[in-house]
């Protein structure tokens, strides 16, 4: 037998001028996966995550816009009707005299009471440190000057927020067996006041004052704030919201 190699023999594949074949034998019994498939998987996941985040953001924006529309539309509607009591939400007072904002609410209350829509008026609002009078006291005095008898006025002068004032109103009226109320306030404030009263067990309607001094950009700004309050209050409850914003 000849010891000569075939003329086309190029030597071992792992010779000095060749590269050894890749060995995918598991190391210590564990096969090392390729990094490429994992990177590709991450590239597929991130677009999905971004899509979900964008969808959630869109839902939040739509929910806020819906709440804003409700605040706006409620402020433009009048639910005046016969009820057990008319409730006027407090606003600033100056040493016993209602501010123009509070006076506009009280003038509307007097008009509704004069129409015979309710035998009772409930005035609300506490005072700030240093004030000699509460908003409720200033409101009662103003209504008295307009001709409302003292016997027709109930006062809730302890509350310092919408929720606190209406909680006091609910306790006061329910103690007298009364539960239907017509809430008078500025248009931007009507929806939240009505929703809070409903949550507290009252059957509430709203009649925003048509002569509010809060107009223009100031009104829009307050409506945006109320829309946020309504949107959050629906989710966590208005009592919880009051605790967080106190």
Description:
- The chain has a domain at 74-245: Rossmann fold.
- It is built from seven helices and seven strands.
- It has helices spanning 35-75, 100-114, 135-146, 162-175, 190-199, 216-236, 238-245; strands at 85-88, 93-94, 97-98, 120-124, 153-156, 180-184, 203-206.
- Strand 4, helix 3 (135-146) and strand 5 form a beta-alpha-beta unit.
The strands making up the biggest β-sheet line up spatially as: 5-4-1-6-7
Name the quaternary structure.
single chain
How would you characterize the largest beta sheet? 5 strands, parallel
Strand content: 5-15%
CATH level 4 superfamily of the domain at 74-245: HUPs
Mean pLDDT: 88
- The secondary structure category is alpha/beta
Proportion in helices: 40-55%
Outline, from the CA principal axes?
A: elongated
CATH architecture name of the domain at 74-245: 3-Layer(aba) Sandwich
CATH topology of the domain at 74-245: Rossmann fold
Q: Give the N-to-C terminal Cα separation.
A: 105 Å
Using the coordinates above, name the CATH class of the domain at 74-245.
Answer: Alpha Beta
Compact overview of the structure:
Helix content is 49%, strand content 11%. It is α/β, with parallel strands linked by helices.
Task: Outline the fold blueprint.
Elements: H1 35-75, E1 85-88, E2 93-94, E3 97-98, H2 100-114, E4 120-124, H3 135-146, E5 153-156, H4 162-175, E6 180-184, H5 190-199, E7 203-206, H6 216-236, H7 238-245
Helix pairs in contact: 1-6, 2-3, 6-7
